[in-house]
Amino acid sequence: MRNVFYSLRRAGIVILSVLISLVSFAQSTGTVKGIVTDSKGAVLSGASVTIEGQKGGTLTDAAGAYSLKVKPGTYTLVITYVGAAAQRYQVSVRAGQTVDQNVTVNVSSDLTDVVVIGSRSRVPRSKLNTVVPVDVINAKEVKAFAQADVTQMLTYVAPSFQSARQTVTDGTDHIDPAGLRSLGPDQTLVLVNGKRYHNTALVNINGSVGRGSVGTDLNTIPVAAIERIEVLRDGAAAQYGSDAIAGVINIVLKKNYKGLQVSSMVGQNFTNMPYAGGTNITDGLTRQVDISGGWGWKSGAYVNVSAQYLKRDATNRSGFDNIPLIYYGNGGALPGSAAVPSGVNANDYYRWLMDLDRSTVSSRKYDRRNIIAGNSANDNKGVFINFGIPITANVNFYSTIGYSIRNGNAGGFSRNPNSWSQQPVLANGQRFYYDGFLPKIYTELEDHTVTAGINAKMGEWNFDISNTQGENRLRYDVKNSGNSSLPATNNVQTEFYAGTLRFVQNTLNLDLNRSLELGTGKSLNMAFGGEYREERFNIAAGELNSYTNGGRQFQPDPIPNYPGTSSLFTFSPGTAVSGSQVFPGFQPADQVKAKRSIYAAYGDLELKTRKFTLGGALRYETFDEFQVNYDNLSGKIASRYEITNKVALRGSVSTGFRAPSLHQRYFQNTSTQFVNGLPSQALTANNYNPIVKNAFGIDG
C-alpha cells in the first residue's frame, strides 16, 4: 500500500506541473470548440479536427466535443471522419476568445462502428479498416436477445466468445467462466473504458469449464450502462498485458446519453422432459429492471448513472436417480456377496432387496429427482456511474465508479438416505436426515471498482494518467448440511460459514501518443506508456465445525433378514467424512495473504500510407512476489494492405506470456468429490505446500 501511495503522489506532482504549464499557455491563445454530429444529430466520437496547413489537431471525445488552442488569427478547420467527406470551416480567433463552431458531416451507415481497441492510434477507424479483427457490438444488438446478463448476451452475438453456466461446481455455479477463441478465461483481458478491469477472487475448480483458471466476472456490469462492446479477436499480450493472449474485450460505458431510460423484462422456462411419460417443468423465473440516466452540459461535462436489478430462480433438468438402493445398504450400491444368506441364489437376494427398497421409496414418497442439474438462483443488484469534467480547454478529468452485490444459492450432489458416511446422526444413532438431504452453497459476491484519470493535450502529444482499483469478495455459507464426523447429538448443526475469498487489484497507468505527418497520405503514430499494478489475494478460514474432523465412526443399519432366514447382515463401521457436506470450509492451513507488484512498459509504432498499414509493439513486464521474480518481453507485428476499395488483406504475428495469477499460486482447499458414486476428500495444494515441494520438486 505504501508503494501505491508513493506512486500516486508522484503522479499528482506530474499532473500539477502539467496543469500549471497549460494554464500559462492558455493566457496567450484563443480557443475553438464545438460538437461534431452526423446528419441525424447523433454525436460522432473520434472525428479528426485539424487546422489546414498545420500539423497536429485533435479528436472528438465520446460526447462528440472537440477543443483546440490556437494563436490569434484566421484559420480553416478541416473535419474528417471515417466514411465521410472532409468538411471545412473558416474561423477567426482573438487572444483569450472562445469561438464555438459546431459541425455536421454525412457518414455512410456501413462505416459508423468506430473502433479504438487493437491500436494505439487515435485516428478513427471502422471495424473493416482495423489491422486486426475486431467485433463491435452496440447496445441495440445486445438488447435484441432475451438474455439478462452480459456473458449470456455476448455468447449469442459474438461467435468467438463463449460462456457456459455451470452446475454442481461450487463457486463456479455463481460466476460464469467465459473466454475468447476457445482459450481459458484467464487468457482474455477485460477493459472498461479502455482501463484494465479486475479479476474475480474465485479459482474455478472441480469439473468446471476453465478448471484451474481465474477469470473476470462480466455480470458485475449492468447492461444498462453499456454503450458498446469491442471484441479484439487477436493475440494482444504485447499491447495490453500477459493475460491478452486470446484477445481483449473492451466495454465502453455510456457518456453521451441524455435523458432517462427504464426497461424491464420477465421470462420463464416451460419445458417438457421425456421421462415418466413426459414431465412438464416450469422454472427459472427471471425478473430484470434496468435504469439509465444521462446529463450533459455545454462545458463538456457529463454524468451517466445506470443501475440493474436482476433476480433469477434456479432451473433443474435432472433425471431420476437410478442407483440400486436408496434406503437400505450403504452408499447406494448393492452389498457384497457376504450379505447373501447361505443357500439363497444371489440374483434372487438382490432382486428381493431392491424390491424392498422400492417399497420404502414409495411409502416415504421419496423424490428420485434428488439433484439439481441447472442454473443456480441469484439476486443481483448493481450500479455504475460514469462522469467527466473539463478542467481547461485541453485538460479533462474522468471517473468511473461501480458497485454490485449478488446473493446466490446452488445445490450440490444429494446425500441419499443410506449415505451413512455423510449423515449427521442423532443421539440415538439414527440419521438426522432420514430421507437424505441436498446440501446447498450460498454465496455473497461483493464487487466494486473506481477509476479516476486525467487526459490532456500537451503540444503534439496526448497525455493520459489514470488509477483503477477493483475488489472482488466471495463469501461461502453452507446450508441444509451437516458435519457427519461430529459426535451424535439431538442439536445437529445444519448451517456453516465456510470462509471468504478476496482479491484486490490497483492499476496505475501512464500513456503518451502522437501522430507525425510524413507527407501526403502518410503518417506515423507513436505511443509509449507504463503500468504499475499491485495485487492482493486473501483466503479467510471458515468456522471450526465447517472443516474439523470430529472422529466419529458411523455404523449403517443392518439389512433385514431374507424371507425364510433368520440372519441379519451387518456392515462394518467406518470413519465419517469431515467438514460441512458439499463444501468443507477453508482451514487455518489454507489461509493466505499474498501480494505482488507488476511493472510494465510498452512501445507502439504504426505506419500508415494510402493503402498499407504496418504496426509493431513491444511490452516488457516483470512480476515481483514472495521469493519469486519473473519477467517477459512480448512482441507483435500486424499489417493491412488494401488491394481495392472493397478487398483488403490483413494479418498479424505475435508472442505472448501468460503469467500465473496470484490465486493460482496461493489457492488451497479441501473439497468433496465423487468417484464412482463414492465421496472422497480432494486436496488442492498451492505451490508452497510441503506436499507439492516434496512430490514435484516445486519451490515457489
Short description:
By secondary structure, the chain is mainly beta. The chain has seven helices and 34 strands.
Could you describe the 3D structure shown?
This protein is mainly β and 700 residues long. The protein has 7 helices and 34 strands. The strands form 8 sheets. A 13-stranded antiparallel beta sheet has the order 18-19-20-21-22-23-24-25-26-29-30-31-32. Strands 11-16-17-14-15 form a 5-stranded mixed beta sheet. Strands 1, 4, 7 and 8 form a 4-stranded mixed beta sheet that branches. The longest helix has 25 residues, at 2-26. It is elongated and about 115 Å long. The chain starts with a helix and ends with a helix. 42% of the residues are buried. The model is unreliable at 1-8 and 18-26 (pLDDT under 50).
List keywords for this structure.
700 residues; mainly beta; 7 helices; 34 strands
End-to-end separation: 23 Å
- How many β strands by DSSP? 34
Oligomer, anyone?
single chain
Instruction: Label the structural class.
Output: mainly beta
Q: Residue-averaged pLDDT, rounded?
A: 86
Instruction: Classify the beta-strand content into a percent band.
Output: 35-45%
| Shape estimate | elongated
Helix share, percent: 10-25%
Number of helices: 7
Strand numbers in spatial order across the main sheet: 18-19-20-21-22-23-24-25-26-29-30-31-32
Q: List low-confidence stretches.
A: 1-8, 18-26
Report the C-alpha radius of gyration, rounded.
31 Å
Q: Let me know the largest β-sheet.
A: 13 strands, antiparallel
